[in-house]
Amino acid sequence: MIYLLDTVILKVCRFPIVGMDSHSWGLSYKGYLWHNGEKKRFCEPFYEQDTVIGFHLNLYLGTLSIYKNRQSLGVAVTGLHHVNAQLYPAASSTSIETEVELGLRTSQYLSLQEKCCVTIARSLKRKIDVTELPLPCAMKRHLNSIT
Fold first, then answer.
1. Closest by Cα among 20, 19, 31, 24 to 6
2. Phi, psi at 84, each rounded to 5°
């Protein structure tokens, strides 16, 4: 199992526990997304050698997106900006002969313009409301991509 996020630091265990409670989310190599002890199909299984799984945590939108070999599999988790605890990334595998390599890419600060766009996008009730705003077309397209 590949573990995504956890709000507590866990001790080493012999069985997968991330995704088994309400404070963690996990993705298994069988394509199931785990949270609160329940699983749901998220993607096709990935048994292939040299598969690269990536995660994009967007704390401004509160989303976690998953990638396989640099191709988006979609948004796996929403509402993370409402979690009132630290989020800790974790990775592991319960499959034999599996290698796990961790890399980190971060961007912690958004420009004031981007923060304003996120605030505007969150305040809109419907996507169509963007078209009614007195903004340049490029800005409207950008706001549509956020919502």
1. 24
2. -100, 55
Cα 36 to Cα 39, 75, 87, 114, distances in angstroms = 8, 18, 16, 33
CA 116, CA 109: separation in Å to the nearest integer?
13
Region 66-74 average pLDDT: 90
**pLDDT at position 111:** 79
CATH of 2-89, one of 3.40.1080.10, 2.60.40.10, 2.60.120.920, 3.40.50.2300: 2.60.120.920
What does the pLDDT look like over 78-132, one tens digit per residue?
988 777 777 776 666 666 777 777 777 766 667 788 888 888 888 887 767 788 8
CA–CA separation, 14 and 89 (whole Å): 19
